[in-house]
Amino acid sequence: MTFLKVNNLKVYYPIRGGFFRRVVDHVKAVDDISFELKQGETYGLVGESGCGKTTTGRTLIGLNKATSGEILFEGQDLAKMSRKEFHHIRRDVQMIFQDPYSSLNPRKRVLDIIAEPMRNFEKLSKSEEKDKVAYYIEKVGLNAESIFKYPHEFSGGQRQRIGIARALTLKPKLIIADEPVSALDVSVQAQVLNFMQDIQKEFNLTYLFISHDLGIIQHMCDRIGIMYRGQFVEEGTSDDIYNNPQHIYTKRLISAIPDVNPENRGKQTDIRQEVNAEYKNSYDKYFNAEGKVHKLKSISDTHSVALP
């Protein structure tokens, strides 16, 4: 049985107009996507801002309502569950939010922030709760005494670590990481990413990793889905996407990855010019008359591309 399987997921938001505020159209934030995750792997959702990747993650965890489609988590369809039925699933599915500054309550101590999920699902004494919070705060590389401090007393990287500790407290099976390092310095990014890989092995976690940074995705993910305007343009293993990109949108994203070696800058510039020329000359091959992508077609056992 597949650990997580998403079938034909759609998330539409109505556009209202006229005197009676009738629905005149829809914003198709997520438009008929399908993918699956195996237990213990890291799946990357990549795309530019506004492509629907965060909406997908929020829908999987029940923060957004699906318009249609299936979200099968260990055989249970999350999309059809009521809020009450979804409650017991929250223990197994947790989220690390993008902004470490706004995702932590500034009026609460770290002890209360990290203990909140446990208070919802477990009945622990105050001493047991404190010991468990101290255990997880040390797991993320912070001092046990930090649990008595407030969020404003920490740096951005430390706050993100607190968010990770909060997500770990219930020992979830799936963690949805929504751009967990985009607000951090580059040196801190590497620290947090390596730490996330370490705890994945230790706790046997499955990650849905959402990012617009293909360099980070390459470092973290086993398989990758590239999103554009709410749809997949390409899906495959990390090797498929980086070494054999087929869709022009994927090629443009990969050509935009900066190369720190100054000797390769001329070569990188030539690659970008080639990709831009292909985009202008072959646009109709990759997009239909409405500017939307075609349906995914399998070109190998692990690689699918949106081509006519």
Protein described:
There is one protein chain. Helix content is 36%, strand content 25%. It has 308 residues and is α/β, with parallel strands linked by helices. It has one domain (4-229): 3-Layer(aba) Sandwich (Rossmann fold), CATH 3.40.50.300. The strands form 2 sheets. It has an 8-stranded mixed beta sheet with strand order 6-7-8-3-9-10-12-11, sandwiched between helices. A 4-stranded antiparallel beta sheet has the order 2-1-4-5. A hairpin with a 2-residue loop joins β9 (223-228) and β10 (231-237). α9 runs antiparallel to α10. The longest helix is centred in the middle third of the chain and has 18 residues, at 186-203.
For the structure shown, list the relevant keywords:
alpha/beta, 308 residues, 36% helix, four-stranded antiparallel sheet, Rossmann fold, 11 helices, eight-stranded mixed sheet
CATH architectural category = 3-Layer(aba) Sandwich
How many domain units?
A: 1
**Structural class determined from secondary elements:** alpha/beta
Strand content: 25-35%
Ends distance: 31 Å
Q: What is the CATH class name?
A: Alpha Beta
What's the SSE pattern? EEEHEEHEHHHEHEHEEHHHHEE
